[in-house]
Structure formats: structure tokens, C-alpha cells
Amino acid sequence: MEAGPPGSARPAEPGPCLSGQRGADHTASASLQSVAGTEPGRHPQAVAAVLPAGGCGERMGVPTPKQFCPILERPLISYTLQALERVCWIKDIVVAVTGENMEVMKSIIQKYQHKRISLVEAGVTRHRSIFNGLKALAEDQINSKLSKPEVVIIHDAVRPFVEEGVLLKVVTAAKEHGCSDYDLEFGTECLQLALKYCCTKAKLVEGSTDLWKVTYKRDLYAAESIIKERISQEICVVMDTEEDNKHVGHLLEEVLKSELNHVKVTSEALGHAGRHLQQIILDQCYNFVCVNVTTSDFQETQKLLSMLEESNLCILYPVVVVSVHFLDFKLVPPSQKMENLMQIREFAKEVKERNILLYGLLISYPQDDQKLQESLRQGAIIIASLIKERNSGLIGQLLIA
Amino acid sequence: MEAGPPGSARPAEPGPCLSGQRGADHTASASLQSVAGTEPGRHPQAVAAVLPAGGCGERMGVPTPKQFCPILERPLISYTLQALERVCWIKDIVVAVTGENMEVMKSIIQKYQHKRISLVEAGVTRHRSIFNGLKALAEDQINSKLSKPEVVIIHDAVRPFVEEGVLLKVVTAAKEHGCSDYDLEFGTECLQLALKYCCTKAKLVEGSTDLWKVTYKRDLYAAESIIKERISQEICVVMDTEEDNKHVGHLLEEVLKSELNHVKVTSEALGHAGRHLQQIILDQCYNFVCVNVTTSDFQETQKLLSMLEESNLCILYPVVVVSVHFLDFKLVPPSQKMENLMQIREFAKEVKERNILLYGLLISYPQDDQKLQESLRQGAIIIASLIKERNSGLIGQLLIA
């Protein structure tokens, strides 16, 4: 079911949601269940999610409502939608946004190709927004494309890291438990809403660290770092099939492996129409090191770039491509190859439009094995830095190891 | 009193400390007061702080105890000590660390030149650690260099952003209030400790957003981003006094100003023994752009580097220096200057030892004014990226705008 980038090892946060910051925290794991129940164990036939996203984010200290704040140039709410979309058994996702943000939201859905999303007008309060979402799901109109759900999950638009396990727990609990005083005592807003307007039962279930809520500016920083870390867990070294290329390519691969622990380093040939490479792209590897050994042109790199552009890989996350060129600085001074290699600036501008971050890397290739190891190590450090930071301000630069 | 880097605009977090995550949060603003009182309004004659730092950080999900986790290569606890050191009326700071971390702690104090610090052995529990700290302060030995305080502030080692205002509130409250049931009802650990062992009064006072506690890995990410932001609020453009240098230097200064809003851009000449520049360094500007116009040597940059090395500026934070060189790419292809400019790699390695991050930047200087503006703009974007990320993996690189 894991359709997203490989999850990074994150610390386990103990305790139920109510150990979180505020009452609103509870809503993430509060679920509304219609009177029609479901078999325990299995998740129900029809589950929908309602995302109240009408907030104006005054606590964030930034003009943009926090659900629209960019992380790696993509709005926060798009990450939340992505997390819910991954769960195949959530049939409909209803987002409540204010009228003034309706167009923004539509363009986000289009740009990031979100599926199963319906929009409703947000209310003046969070309660009202949830209510409008529920109403849209409850309405039994012929021309409504929404299927009436058995269970509705209320999920904050600003909790981007929710995972299927937690959602399943919520849905299962929705069947198994009635409403407890315990919940009410803690005054969970949307539990009360559920009781008041929807003649439903409700129950508080345990959350996880993934449920943390982006509330303050520092949370945006944390979210960006977590996402950068998640998409930096695999590097693919791409090389053509010529023997000497493969040789130095594999040397670089080895050094990358030893320098970057915890990072999966694979290698793949571009030859044979890159069938295997296609699979690596499908498996969502977001980092590529393209080896162009003795050549100072970009044939290999351009092949890779076209493959990436044809794929959907770059829609959700910026993909890093490092075009590596080897050169014996003793025999050929770097300057001699500069003119040609400077072309990379133009390529980089082009592919940035498609969310690909292209950098050039010239690695010294001395005869002395020990010196070669050292320059490879230096190259690995630079590659690691570029992948870690995904700094769009430095695209098209030719770095030297 | 603001001795640190200029604080960045952070959102206001409402509510008292008890709206924080756990009971332990309260301790940050709980203060222990001996029976000897102080005049209201004024802060007392003798204030000391005790930092329990014996934790093993199991929730962090990393082997290193969180108080020793590096942020910009400096351990977290050093930032907390720095925050307390800034407060002149805190006479003694007692840190409780486990025996096995005693040497690590000593080396941290030495390396970052922390003052007014005493170390005691941590206890098996947080309570015991605080108690050991209090005992060291209470002891009335001739050979104890600690002065017996009127008020002791208990502060978590993993709350690096505490500011003087909050500490003053705590100390004032220590005088003005007795111990309330309210506090006890919330079971604030160290309030109970205070009552049980130290025959003191205690009171819970309001905290601020700065008091947030580094608990999980994501908090380390947030802390690093906040610190990077704080030390990136000012850039000084350094140029020598020759007319043409000043001209292009000021052009770059203007573009930096327009490209980087919210960042203070100043300029200073290196001439006249750089008297004013000394002041800018003393005022803790952590970012320098050194303009070497037509030259492809590093005279200006080297002068600046020696000034920085002589100062204490680099002890606490990595200082970014961008050595800028202008070149009309039409008349002189960049490659022609490369050999010479590549020297920067060696300089960069040297000064990295002193916590200076040196990068080279070659800016195209065409006759066409519009093109010049564009390459200056490109240069500004690169400078901004280097300052924002402080990426030590890319030091010594020669970037091209």
C-alpha cells in the first residue's frame, strides 16, 4: 500500500492524541460513524474523508493560510491530500475551503493531479466547514458523484504525514465503539458536532507521531526537512554500458555507499532502452547521478532527462540529477573543458520548468589510485550535499571535486 | 542586552507553559525561591540556573542524547548555555550531566568558551539531577566558587531559545507569589521537588514560544532552520576603495537589497584598516560578500578572512564568505581565469578549520546594462542560497552567475 516515497526512520511518539497540543488535535483521530455499521476487522465498504481547510493561519505569522504554505514549492495541503489518496479504500475526499481560496484549491488539484477530491465552501467556523463537508456526503442527489459513505474521517488539512495504519484504526474503532463520556469531557470539537448534528457515535483512538500538526513556522521548517530526508533515501548511479564507464561508475557507486550510510545506492545502465531504469523511476527514486566518463558532452544525461520528463516522477517532488564528468586534471586542465560543460546552465534552466534540479560535477581522475579515491570521496560529499539541500538557486552550476 | 544574533520574526505562541506538551514543560518556567526574598520589580542580587542534562534522549530516535545532538556542528546544549550566559544577572549556571558525559561537557564548555558554568553529577532521575545542582549551590564551603543564590531557575538543557524577558518574569514571580495548589494540581515535577527538599515557594508563570522543547528529531530540524534564519538576517558587502570597485560593488549591494527583502544589506570598505568593518564583525554579522572586481586574485578576500579569523565571531556560528569576481565573459572566457581562481579550494579548506565557509562566485560583467542587471540578479540568488543553506559540502566551489 506504500505508494509514497520510502518513509524515513522517525522516532515513536508515545501516547494518544490528547497528549498533543490542543483540543483540535483530537479531531485528527475522531471519526464519525453513521448508524449503519460495518463488520469488525474489515474496513468498511465506503469510507470518505472531510478536510476542513478554511483556516487563515493567524498563528503561523505569515500572510498565507498555513494549508497553502509551500514546502519544496508545493502547498502543504497537497501533501495531506497525497497521504489520503494513497489509501485505496478512501473513496471520496471532501475539502472545505473559503470562497476566496476556491480557485487556488482547484489549481492545486489540477497541477498535482489529485484524484477523488470534491470541494465545498468552508463555513465561518471549523464546525461549519466540517458540517458542510458531511452535508455534501449525506445528500442523496442523482447528480451527486459522491457515494454515501458508511464512515467519514475528519482530518486536518495541516497534518500531512498521516499514514494508512492510523486511518484504518480510526475506521475500525468507528465500528467497534460507541461514544464515551471520556471524549466529551475533553470537549473534542468535532465529536460534539457529530453528536449534535449527525446522530452518530464517536470515539477517540490513539494517534501516532505522523499526526503532528503544522501550526507554527517552525513546524513548516520541520516538515520540509522531513520531506527532504524521505526523498533522499535512494540514489541511482546511471552509466552507459562501455567497460571503462562502468568501471569508474562502479567506483563512484562504491564510494557513495561507504560515504552515505542509510542511503540506498543502486546503479543502472542507460542501454537497452533503460528498461530497468524505467522501473527505478516507477519505484520513485528521486536522485540520479549520471556518469559521462571521458566525454564532456551530455549525451547520457540528456537521455536520462528525457526519461524523467516523460515520467510523472517530478510532479510531486523535485528530482535531483547530477551530471558527473571525469577528467585527469594533470593531462587536461578543467578550464579546457569548461566552455563545453557550461552548456549545462541552459539545460538546467529548461528542466527546472519540469521540477528537475540539474547540477554538473567535474571529478578529477588522476592515475594515482589513492588520489582517485580521494577525489571520488570529495565528489560523493558534493553529491550528498546537493541531494540533501535540493537548492534550486544552484542549478546549472558546475562543481569540481 | 541582546548579545546574540538578531532574533527573526517568529509567530507568537499564546498561553502559559502548561499548554505545552507534557508535565516536564512546566519546569522551564517553574522557579525555586529560597526563604530570603527580594524587592519586587528589581531582579534579585544573586540568581543561579540549574540545567538537568542527564537525559539519554530515547524519544529522539538517535543514539546521541538530544542535549548533545549537533546543530550546525555545535551541540544543542551549547545554544542553551549561550542563551543563559547572555543574561548578565545570572551569576552561576550549574549543569548536571552523567559521569560518562562529564568529559564531553567539559570539552564543549572549553571549545565554545562558555562562562560561569559549574558541572555536577546527574542523578538517576531528573529530580535527583536538579537536587544535586541545588545542593552544589546551597553548600557553604569556603572552597566553593559558587555564590549562594537568592533565586534558582531550573531550565531544561533542551530549550535553546529561552530569552531574558521570560527568565526575568520567572525571577520576579519567585518573589511575588507563594506556592499555589494550582501548580501542585498539575503535578509539576520540580515544583514538588522544591517543596519537598528545599523548603521553598514556587509558582507557575507564563512562557513564550521560545520555550519550546527539543524532543523529537523534527524539533532538531526546526531548531537548525530557526538558527540558520537568525544568522542570515544581515549581509555585509565588502569592497576596497577604488572607484570602479565601489561602483560595481554598490550595484551588487542594490540588487541584493531588492532580491532579499527582510535581509539587512550593508557595505563597508576594507581600506583604512577596516575600522568600520571591525564594528560590523563585533555587531555579529555572519555573512560577507567580498568584491574583487577586475582582479582574479584574492587580496581583498584574504584581508577579510584574516580579520574574521582574528575575531571571535566564528566560535559560535559558521560565517559565510562569498568571494565575488567580475569578468566580461565576452572579452575574457571564464576558463582563462579558472586556474587562478581554483586556488579558492585551498583557502576554503584552511578557513573551514576556523568555522568559516568560503565560496567563490564569478559574475559575468557585460557592457550591456540590462545583461549586467540580469547577471547581478543571478549572482544575488546564488549568494542568497549559499547563506541560507550554509552547506559545508560545497565550500571552495567556484560558482558562476
Protein model, in words:
The structure is a homodimer of 401-residue chains. With 401 residues, chain A is an alpha/beta fold. Chain A has two domains: 45-162 and 207-224, Alpha-Beta Complex (Spore Coat Polysaccharide Biosynthesis Protein SpsA, Chain A), CATH 3.90.550.10; 231-398, Flavodoxin domain (Rossmann fold), CATH 3.40.50.360. Chain A contains 14 helices and 13 strands. In chain A, the strands form three sheets. Chain A has a six-stranded parallel sheet, sandwiched between helices. A five-stranded mixed sheet of chain A has the order 1-7-2-5-6, sandwiched between helices. In chain A, strands 3-4 form a two-stranded antiparallel sheet. The longest helix of chain A is centred in the C-terminal third of the chain and has 21 residues, at 369-389. Mean pLDDT of chain A is 80; it is low at 1-41 and 180-187. Chains A and B meet through helix 8, helix 12, helix 14 and strand 13 of A and helix 8, helix 12, helix 14 and strand 13 of B. Chains A, B: Belongs to the IspD/TarI cytidylyltransferase family. IspD subfamily. Chains A, B: Homodimer. Chains A, B: It comes from Pan paniscus. Chains A, B: Its EC number is 2.7.7.40. Chains A, B: Residues 1-29 are annotated as: Disordered.
Key terms:
disordered N terminus, ISPD_C (chains A, B), alpha/beta, five-stranded mixed sheet, elongated, homodimer, 2 domains, six-stranded parallel sheet, 401 residues, Spore Coat Polysaccharide Biosynthesis Protein SpsA, Chain A, 39% helix, 14 helices, Rossmann fold
